[in-house]
Amino acid sequence: MSNQNGSRPTVTDCTFRGNFALFSGGGLSSESGSSPIVTHCSFVENACGTQGGGGIKIDNSSSATLANCAFIGNESRNGPGGGLNRLGLPMAVTSCTFSGNSASNGGGIFNGTTGLAVTNCTFSGNIANTGRAIRDKAGAAATNCVFWTDNESSVPVTGFVTVAYSSIQDADPNDGDIPFGGEANGNIDDNPLFADADGDDDIIGTADDDLRLPAGLSPCIDAGNNAAVPAGVTTDLDGNGRILDDGAMFDTGNGTRPIVDMGAYEVPGDCNNNDTPDALDPDADGDGVINECDPDADNDGLLNDDELDLGSDPLYPDTDKDGVSDGPSDPDGPEGVIHAGPDNCPLIANHSQTDTDNDDVGDRCDPCPDDDQDICAASPGDMDNDGDVDLTDYDAFLDCFTGPGGAVSPGCEPADTDKDQDSDLIDFGVFQDLFTGGP
Question: Where do the domains of the chain lie?
Answer without folding.
Answer: 1-285, 368-434
